[in-house]
Each structure stands twice: as structure tokens, then as C-alpha cells.
Amino acid sequence: MQFANLGRRKARQTGMWGVFTLAAAINGLALLVICGFLLVNGIGAINWEFLTAYPRASMTEGGIFPCIVGTIILSVGSMLVAFPLGVCAAIYLNEYARGGRTVRIIRLGIANLAGVPSVVFGLFGLAFFVTFFGMGVSIASGVLTLTILVLPVIIGTAEEALKSVPSTYREASLGLGATKWQTIRLVVLPAALPGMLTGAILALSRAAGETAAIMFTASVFYAPKLPRSIFSDVMALPYHVYVLATAGTEIDKTRPLQYGTALVLIALVLGMNLVAIILRARLQAKR
Question: Could you tell me if 124 and 212 are in contact, meaning their C-beta atoms sit under 8 angstroms apart?
């Protein structure tokens, strides 16, 4: 009887392992197909002029340099605001807040925000930052909108990273006479930081690829100059792809530019993620 039960458990384990392997293979294959499709259709459009020039001739010629700059400004700017806010919120929830209705409501709100469509954040940014605060369509409005959009991801991963730090670290620090804040700042945060950077990587990828959240708040069809302040509007790669594919006057003529822009966007996101991953790996090696 025991051998039969053991055989059934092994069979179930093998079956579930096969299901998980198949799911991973399907996801990997889908990614390869998408990247391969963009590479085949867009690589011909990429050259030095495409990466360093401004669009011209109704977007059918020239390059995407202002779009690259705008995407970097918006995504990195949102992370500079969202990461410290998210980490502070996670510290409060995990280290200071006591279990109760208020904390449950806060966590429920964070979970719900993570599932809100990005267009809702865009409309909120339009009403709140662009109109109510009078920031207009600008970098500031776009960065703050993207900050709200990615905060749930950062808070969730940061809180999990804090939970993963063994309680013995805290007990040892407190036993040596350190205050609670000193323990958090000097012991808990350094140990949890690599895990927090995982959330930052996910948030950075989402911020860089968002269209709906910035089309109402930060991005414009065409900007003749690079932004001079946080209250300037910008061009961005995801919105540029949307414009070329839907609002251009010669959509078929811009088709290679659409694929090329999408390919550059993917490469840019991968590059920024790679920098964050290397930083996380170095921090983990120091632990």
C-alpha cells in the first residue's frame, strides 16, 4: 500500500513538473517568436541616423533620438520617485504597522491598484496633475503618473524582501543596544535590498513600456527640441509606435520604422534591466 501511494505521488510530481516545464517552454517560445518577428522586420530600419536624428517628413524619415531620450527620462524619473516611496511604505507595513483593519485596507488597496488598467492611471494623471495642479502635458505629470502606476509592484516586492530577512538579524541588533530605526537602516535594509531591486526591475520595465499612462500626461506627437525642464513635454518610444501605427498619414510607408522603434524599445528596456540585475548581483555578492 505504501509503495502504491509513493508511486502515485511520484506520478503526480512528474505530471506537475511536466506541466510547469511546458508552461515555461510556451512562454519562452512566445518571447522568441515576438523578438524574432521584430528583429526580422525592424533590423533594416536601424542605423546611426535612425538612433541619433529627429523624425522628419511626417515621421516617414529621420530617427527616434528624442523618443529614446524621453523614454529614459520618464522611466528613470518615475523610479527615482517611486522606489524610495515604495520602500518607505513597505517598511511601515512590515516593521511598524500592527495587524488590524487599517492595515488590511491598505494592503487591499495596494493589491487593487496593481490590477487597475494603465489607461485609468493616465486619465487620473490628466485630471489631477495636468489639469488640477496645472502642470500641463509635461515630464513632471508623466513621471508622477508612472510613479503611482508602479508603486504597487515596488511596495509588494519590497515588503516580501523585508519579510525574507531572518528575525534573528533584528533580535541580534536590538540585543546589542541598537534602536529599532538603526536596526532597520543598518541591518534589515541592506539584507533586503537585493530583493527590493527585483521589484524595481519589474517596475522599470513596465514604466518604460507604458503608452496609455503617458499619452495624456507627458508625450506629444512631435517635439522639435529636447526637453529643457521637468515642465516640458517629450516624445517617447511606446507612444511613437502608437502614433506611427494608428495616426500617421502614411502608415504603410512607416511600417519598417514601427518595427524598428519597437525593437529599440525592447533593447532599451533589456539594457536598463541588465544594469539593475548587475547591481543586484553585486549587492548579493557582498552579503
Answer: no
The sign of the dihedral angle between the CA atoms of 29, 31, 33, 35 is: negative
Q: Which cell numbers hold the place of 107? A: 494592503
Decide if 235 contacts 66 (C-beta within 8 A): yes
Q: Which one, of 237, 256, 266, 269, lies nearest residue 43 by Cα?
A: 256
Which pLDDT does position 130 carry in this prediction? 94
How does DSSP classify residue 44? Answer: G
pLDDT at 4 over 70: no
User: For the segment 26-60, what is each residue's pLDDT rounded down to a tens digit?
Assistant: 999 998 998 888 888 888 888 888 888 888 877 77
Give me the pLDDT at residue 144, please.
95
3-state secondary structure of 59: coil
Q: What is the pLDDT of residues 187-232, one digit of tens each?
A: 999 889 888 888 888 888 888 888 889 999 999 888 878 888 999 9
User: What radius of gyration do the chain's Cα atoms show?
Assistant: 23
| pLDDT recorded at residue 77 | 93
Q: Is 61 helix (H, G, I), strand (E, B) or coil?
A: strand
Whole-angstrom Cα distance, residue 184 to residue 49?
Answer: 50
Beta bridge partner(s), residue 56: 61
Q: What gap in Å lies between CA 245 and CA 121, rounded to an integer?
A: 23
CA 236 to chain centre: 15
Residue 190 makes CB contacts below 8 A (sequence gap 6+) with 287
DSSP 225: S
63 C-beta neighbours (distance < 10 Å), count: 23
Q: Are 240 and 64 in contact (CB under 8 A)?
A: yes
Strand partners, 234: 219
